[in-house]
Write a structure and sequence with these properties.
single chain, 229 residues, alpha/beta, 4-stranded mixed beta sheet
Length: 229
């Protein structure tokens, strides 16, 4: 049994039982990542009638995302992995959105995928992929940019919440996907686990290091302020 966690967008957790069976819970309540994540994990374990000691590995989404929310998932994964003595692996969160399209939709090999999510400040996080053997293979990114500056091709299948925020740039929803798979906006942590298993089998190293891509909005003061009496 493997645990997947992602707090780059919604608070989401998944228990993966094998190559096809998984259960996922998520909560889109903003700014409550720290409160919601542990209860979601506990509920998943209870639903399966298992113990936390049955977890064999943990895979966590590494972003890119805003500092505070992403940090909750990474810290939780590391602390739980240390307590249980199990490995913790990291996978970029945008990879799960692309993987959902490649795995479940009828897209031909070579189809270019572009995932864009909200980075605030009128910017998006973006990453590019190509469909190969029903998997999403990264080809560029992740990075952060203004929507108009994201590199695109005319054949791109655009996914992610950033597309709906800037339809004038990224266009209308793709009818091949959105009618059948309306949840392709958010990373599914079960897919993070399956991606990690594939990459580990190929000998890749998957560090659980955050992809912040830019400094947080809130920074500590650089010096003491002078107070006049």
């Amino acid at each position: 049994m493997h645990l997947g966690i992602d707090t780059s967008d919604e608070v989401a957790a998944a228990l993966v039982l094998d190559d096809v069976r998984a259960e996922t819970l998520s909560d889109g309540e903003p700014r409550r990542h720290a409160e919601l994540l542990a209860p979601l994990v506990a509920e998943l374990i209870e639903r399966q009638g298992r113990s936390v000691r049955d977890i064999e590995s943990i895979v966590v989404g590494t972003g890119p995302a805003l500092f505070t929310g992403l940090r909750v998932g990474l810290v939780t994964a590391r602390v739980l992995g240390l307590a249980l003595g199990v490995p913790v692996h990291g996978v970029p969160s945008l990879d799960a959105v692309a993987e959902a399209a490649a795995r479940f939709a009828d897209l031909t090999d070579g189809t270019p995928l572009l995932v864009v999510t909200d980075a605030r400040r009128r910017e998006v996080y973006w990453s590019r992929y190509e469909v190969r053997d029903r998997a999403a293979v990264p080809v560029a990114g992740p990075d952060v940019a203004a929507p108009a500056d994201v590199p695109r091709t005319p054949d791109d299948v655009v996914l992610g919440a950033g597309r709906d925020l800037y339809p004038e740039v990224f266009g209308a929803p793709d009818p091949r996907l959105d009618a059948r798979y309306p949840t392709l906006c958010h990373p599914n942590p079960a897919l993070l686990v399956w991606i990690a298993q594939r990459r580990l089998a190929a000998g890749e190293d998957l560090p659980a290091d955050p992809l912040y891509l830019r400094r947080p909005d809130a920074v500590p003061p650089t010096g003491a302020k002078r107070v006049l009496a």
